[in-house]
Amino acid sequence: MMLDLFDGQDPNIIAPPVTLHPNFLTQRQQQLLLNEVSDYPLTKIEIEVFGKKHLIPRTQAWFGDDGCDCKYSKTLINPLPWPPMLAKLRQTLINRCQLNFNAVLVNHYKDGHDCMGWHSDDEPEIIAGSAIASITLGACRDFVVRHKASQQKVTYTPFSGDLIIMAPGMQQTWQHALPKRLSITQPRVNFTFRLITPDFYRR
Ligand SMILES: O=C(O)CCC(=O)C(=O)O
């Protein structure tokens, strides 16, 4: 089943190019992935904001095909090779959604103090106009999208095992964030699958 929150709504509301697919993963698939995540080399990297260095409020790891590097706050990150369950998840997405992905950012939020601020996934290495697939495991947190021009916001609440697809073009007109939710004590893991231009930073 696919949920479109905007069916039958006021036509003045801009519908975000987002679809939520509940129960995309079975309980068993979720457990196998969570077991694997406990072996990932998740790190808290340092970023520079307005000239000041900060540690990000979460841990993360970058996996992908060879040459699918990403840049995070001026730091070039080479992809780690695909672990077995993550490789299966990528293949499942490709088969079931007919979308292509060659890299994934894994974010681990230890509790509701960990978060991600407003941003778009519009880095130059990401193939313009490609979709982004986002899978949630663990705690249910608010995933908020904001239209860049109108500032209109919409909140999605993906549960463990749910899939969100951000459609091609969304990153150019919308931002997204995972705000702090201090009452949440459970961890959450998120996988955002992306399509990267191979060797973008190696030319
Ligand atoms: O954890 C989330 O749902 C958001 C992740 C995200 O925004 C990203 O990886 O760009």
Distance between the termini: 42 Å
Give the second-level CATH assignment, the architecture: Sandwich
In CATH, the homologous superfamily goes by the name Alpha-ketoglutarate-dependent dioxygenase AlkB-like
Largest sheet: 6 strands, antiparallel
The total strand number stands at 14
Helix segment tally: 3
What is the averaged pLDDT score? 94
The spatial strand order of the largest sheet comes to 1-12-9-14-7-4
What is the CATH C-level name?
Mainly Beta
Beta-strand percent range: 25-35%
Overall shape? globular
Low-confidence stretches: none
Q: Would you give the CATH topology?
A: Jelly Rolls
Along the chain, the helix and strand elements come as EHEEEEEHEEEEEEHEE
Helix fraction, binned, reads: 10-25%
Please characterize this protein's 3D structure:
With 203 residues, the chain is of the alpha+beta class. The chain has one domain (18-194): Jelly Rolls (Sandwich), CATH 2.60.120. It has helices at 27-37, 84-97, 170-173; strands spanning 18-21, 46-49, 52-55, 59-64, 70-72, 75-77, 103-109, 116-119, 132-138, 143-147, 153-156, 163-166, 174-178, 188-194. The strands form four sheets. It has a six-stranded antiparallel β-sheet. The protein has a four-stranded antiparallel β-sheet with strand order 8-13-10-11. A two-stranded antiparallel sheet has the order 2-3. Strand 10 (143-147) and strand 11 form a beta hairpin. The chain is globular and about 45 Å long. The model has no long low-confidence stretch (mean pLDDT 94). The protein binds 2-oxoglutaric acid (AKG). The site of 2-oxoglutaric acid has 10 residues, from strand 7, strand 13 and strand 14. InterPro entries: AlkB-like, AlkB-like_sf, ALKBH2, Oxoglu/Fe-dep_dioxygenase_dom. 2-oxoglutarate binds at residues 107, 109, 119, 176, 188, 192, 194. GO terms for molecular function: broad specificity oxidative DNA demethylase activity; cytosine C-5 DNA demethylase activity; ferrous iron binding. Substrate binds at residues 50-52, 122.
